Amino acid sequence: MKILAIIPVRGGSKGVPGKNIKLLNGKPLLSYTAEIALQSKYLTEVILSSEDEQIIAVAKSLDIKVPFVRPAELANDNTPTIDVLIHALKWYESQNVFFDAVCLLQATSPFRTAKFLDKAIEKFIKSDCDSLVSVQKVPHEYNPHWTFEVNNEGNLKIATGETEIISRRQELPTAYHRDGSIYITKTKVLLQEHSLYGKNTTFIESSPEMYVNIDTMQDWEKAELMVKNFKK
Predict the structure, then answer these.
(1) What is the rounded CA–CA span in Å between residue 197 and residue 32?
(2) % helix / strand / coil in the chain, to the nearest 5?
(3) What is the reported pTM?
């Protein structure tokens, strides 16, 4: 299976200015994702998609291919990630190069291992699902069976639609949330359905000890502490 890994990175970060190339333990944040992607046994091509010249220069220094400069209209705060992936696929199609799937690796989730990435790809290939996402368990207090929405009368209703709440924690079904570390999707699902998920999605569970999704300075500080703990 031919798999294109895309690391989408744009300039103009507001929560942590310049975060994608900001030094984390002496290395640009981008380098953590670049290194494990290049170590994978299964990724056919690893590229960066960016509009920012400084980020592109850093990516090239890390041996990440930058086959094109992302159009400015696809580098806004509200640009859907899927549009960035489709743009990359269509660029390759224009070069008569085709892939079976895309692996989305976000630089803001830096702490994966190449072994974990390859395990995810292996599961995706064997499953024949439309997609795979990395997940973590939802703490029981946030389980959807214990969360509420407001109904038309202004009162609470169980978010899952049940009329009776599950009273015991032990009876709650396991729930997961996406952790942003890995997404893998078949090309035809991206192009034909304009979806990251398709009709059936499998998953791989990440380690909570490796989880951080850097969006704010508090997240950055957490990542710095994690790196120190990893060293120990």
Answers:
(1) 25
(2) 35, 20, 40
(3) 0.93
User: Cβ distance 139 to 171 under 8 Å?
Assistant: no
Buried b (16+ CB within 10 A) or exposed e, 17-46: eebbbeebeebbbbbbbbbbbeebebbebb
What tokens appear for 173 in the block?
A: 């079904």
pLDDT digit string (tens) for 69-113? 999 999 998 899 999 999 999 999 999 999 999 999 999 999 999
> CA torsion, points 70, 61, 54, 34, in degrees to nearest 10?
60
Copy the structure tokens of residue 209.
């000890």
> CA 37 → CA 41, 88, 98, 108, 182, distances in Å?
9, 17, 19, 14, 11
Tell which residue, 159, 111, 160, 155, has the closest CA to residue 136. 111
